[in-house]
Amino acid sequence: MPTLQRRCYSAKPVTGDTLVIDGPEAHHLLHVLRVQPGQSLVVFDGTGVEFACDVSECRRAEIELVVRSAEPVDRELPYSLELGVALPKGDRTRWIIEKCVELGVTKVTPLVTDYGDRKAKLESATKLQRHVIEASKQCGRNVLLGISRAVQFAEWVQESGEHPCLQLLAHPGGVALHRVKPTSQGPTRLAIGPEGGFSDVEVAQAQAANWQIVDLGPRILRIETAALKLVAAVAE
């Protein structure tokens, strides 16, 4: 497993020889990690570049850094991977987001489904973004996973996007997952339903839009377990 240096995220594009880190990142660096002038950090700004920096000054609510070098570092999958999922509540959503970041998912789209909990309230976009940033810092990704607005399943399943090479919807009675062999690496979309699964109408909508139905096995899986199993199977 690769060893990563201490990393932080800059919400502003890094363009010059110096930069200032403020907000939650500065608070974490100052009050949790207690960085000091002269220490080194790796900064990423979501563009796929790593910036080797030295701490030049620590102020009350911000840190000034000097940029020593910049290097493109690609840890992305060679194709886009989107997960549409009926997100559960609370920490289970955070767990899904974190694992999707680690496994290289490009985008997560929350789905509104027939059997989903209509009263469930998703975390704010700001909180979800913080989960993405923290997971990216931990796993070494330099491009942030995108999180789309919540969308009706019937609308999402019809989107052509980048004309995916592979579209898989998890549902009992489909093809066994281990038998699904993509012919080439290309844009991929995956769908995971709520605890009650997808409705018959939704499965028919997916099949009409050229989605392949896959069975994740004989046991009943929680949303986050099903998402992890399906993503890991295609992100190898």
Task: Give an account of the 3D structure.
The chain has 236 residues and is α/β, with parallel strands linked by helices. The chain has helices spanning 23-31, 91-103, 125-139, 153-156, 200-208, 223-234, and strands at residues 7-9, 18-21, 40-44, 49-58, 63-72, 81-85, 107-112, 146-147, 151-152, 166-176, 188-192, 212-215. The protein has 6 helices and 12 strands. β6, α2 (91-103) and β7 form a beta-alpha-beta unit.
How would you spell out the order of helices and strands?
EEHEEEEHEHEEHEEHEH
- Under the CATH scheme, which architecture of the largest domain would be assigned? 3-Layer(aba) Sandwich
Please outline the major beta sheet. Answer: 7 strands, parallel
Give the number of DSSP strands: 12
Task: Give the CA-CA distance, first to last residue.
Answer: 16 Å
Query: What is the helix content?
Result: 25-40%
Which fold name fills CATH's third level, the topology of the largest domain? Answer: Alpha/beta knot
Q: Specify the CATH class of the largest domain.
A: Alpha Beta
Mean pLDDT: 92
